[in-house]
Write a structure and sequence with these properties.
By secondary structure, the protein is α/β, with parallel strands linked by helices. The chain contains eleven helices and twelve strands.
Length: 260
């Protein structure tokens, strides 16, 4: 793990957007953040490394520490959970805080299976719900033709399990999955890393954003720069950008305008 972390850090110095796969046939690692089942010869080891997006993870921990010190009821949404690096870190670090709950969303079946295994091996099932769903702006179905159309318009990343299949995939919205639960929380901390579909997901969570809870958002914006304009129009306040990948925003009672 130490060798892979050094490889990751050096590679980022050379090319900040590149992440080389692990050369190791390793399928399980333990870090200060937790225990992880990983896929050998993939980028999984880098993603669960404590070096991965270190500045953003430190900011997240400080934000959650501030919220917990004020006895806030916190709902954490891990959207694009991959195999669970974000979920496991938060779940383990704030295990003793009873008013923090995590919902993790991962559409890719292979990654989702590892996400579930990692939640279980870290004994976090009591505080984490996981969903193998594709989040979008509305409930419905997506077919291969939708993938082809959107890829022509701009880069959109779909789960590999969907790209390799000719079947339709069910899409759900945050609002339909969460319902009125947001009213039970003082603060909602959202991490969205979905390779180009961030705006669609937020449109599907309009009731959530308008719920009145404090919204704290870490969003990947280096693939789709439109996300900054979208959040500004919703009334979100830009907080900080600590890495080339993500930006931090906050707001309360955000208003999602209808898409023209």
């Amino acid at each position: 793990m130490f060798i892979q972390e050094m490889r990751y850090s050096l590679n980022k110095l050379i090319n900040s957007r590149s992440m080389a796969p692990s050369p190791f046939a390793i399928e399980y690692v333990e870090t200060i953040n937790g225990k992880f089942n990983v896929r050998s010869h993939t980028t999984d080891m880098s993603i669960v490394s404590p070096a991965y997006e270190r500045c953003d993870m430190r900011h997240l921990a400080e934000l959650l520490q501030w919220l917990t010190s004020r006895s806030r009821k916190i709902l954490v949404l891990d959207i694009g959970a991959h195999i669970g690096a974000f979920t496991i870190m938060v779940g383990n670090r704030f295990r003793g805080y009873k008013d923090l709950y995590i919902m993790a969303f991962e559409p890719d079946t292979e990654k989702y299976q590892l996400l579930e295994k990692n939640i279980a091996c870290n004994d976090l099932k009591e505080n984490v719900e996981s969903y193998n769903v594709y989040l979008s702006a509305e409930d419905g179905e997506l077919g291969p033709q939708d993938l082809q159309r959107e890829r022509r318009e701009k880069f959109i990343s779909y789960p590999s399990s969907f790209r390799e299949s000719r079947s339709k995939m069910v899409s759900r919205t945050l609002d339909s999955l969460i319902g009125n639960r947001a009213r039970d929380y003082d603060a909602i901390v959202m991490k969205i890393d979905t390779e180009g579909t961030e705006c669609k997901i937020l449109r599907g969570g309009s009731r959530l954003l308008e719920s009145g809870a404090e919204i704290h958002l870490m969003v990947e914006d280096f693939i789709d720069q439109e996300i900054a304009d979208f959040l500004e129009k919703c009334g979100a306040e830009f907080i900080v950008k600590l890495s080339p990948y993500n930006s931090w925003w906050k707001g309360k009672g955000l208003r999602v305008k209808s898409e023209k």
